[in-house]
């Protein structure tokens, strides 16, 4: 079978170039998209992600500010800071880098972000809007998957989509978005019995678990489309997905690699959402 490898890095480059042009056009109308990112504590991985986000924003002309707060920052201090960003007319996107230290209530913090500046799409208002099919800020990884499928001409309408993983940031919203596109959606998770009985039925299989090579050749139907969201760092520093790519690549019709698959789309969608927020707020 001839298999299409869906390269997120290629699609992301193209989208970022279009976004850069859009930012230039907004600046001509005196709209200067601005993203603020708040990071609390010394989580190495979080610091790296924040650095990458800032660099990506600046590369396409979005101004960004990173607030690095001490590990013992109080919840009230953080919420007050978010309130200031909510009221600041020059700030369009607010991103609180997760995870937060244990003493801070994540739910309260995320709910304090204005839904109109919630470029991560985690506020319950945006989650609710997605679920009833209204215009919403959509979470970046699921939105990136949708754009990637669009680019490669994969339509979900009428297809059986199986989503493995039901997190609030990936599994649930991607299933919801595909349901809104008229797919028939099945969710699987850690308590699902006989997982492969479900995955084998998928026309479109989305895997967001975080277990290296959970999905083997026996788990998929010939000709299926497979999207691998998983990222597992091996001891040798290599990153691998939830899907045994080498086994599947001659069996399926489309598949994303890891790395260079879903990953680059996620940050691109953060940029997309920030520009969208700047347009909506002006
Ligand atoms: P979570 O840990 O929040 O969720 C994992 C999900 O997988 C849960 O729903 C869990 O079930 C389910 N699960 C665990 N084990 C199994 C199993 N054996 N069989 C079936 N389902 C199982 O992870 P995230 O959704 O945040 O992330 C998933 C993966 O995607 C990670 O590797 C993460 O690094 C990666 N990721 C990649 C991004 C990117 O940009 N490329 C962005 C975000 C995440 P249950 O609910 O029952 O516990």
Bound ligand species:
NADPH dihydro-nicotinamide-adenine-dinucleotide phosphate
Q: Report the count of strand segments.
A: 11
Sequence of strands across the biggest β-sheet:
1-11-8-7-5-6
Task: Briefly note the CATH topology name of the largest domain.
Answer: Rossmann fold
Description of the molecule:
This protein is α/β, with parallel strands linked by helices and 282 residues long. It has two domains: 30-114, Leucine Dehydrogenase, chain A, domain 1 (Rossmann fold, 3-Layer(aba) Sandwich), CATH 3.40.50; 139-263, NAD(P)-binding Rossmann-like Domain (Rossmann fold), CATH 3.40.50.720. 40% of the residues lie in helices and 16% in strands. The chain has helices at 8-28, 44-59, 75-87, 106-112, 124-131, 140-151, 171-180, 195-199, 245-248, 263-280, and strands at residues 4-5, 34-40, 63-69, 93-96, 160-164, 184-188, 204-207, 225-228, 232-233, 239-240, 254-255. It has a six-stranded parallel beta sheet with strand order 1-11-8-7-5-6. Strand 9 (232-233) and strand 10 form a beta hairpin. Helix 2 (44-59) crosses helix 10. The model has no long low-confidence stretch (mean pLDDT 97). The protein binds NADPH dihydro-nicotinamide-adenine-dinucleotide phosphate. The site of NADPH dihydro-nicotinamide-adenine-dinucleotide phosphate (NDP) has 26 residues, from helix 10.
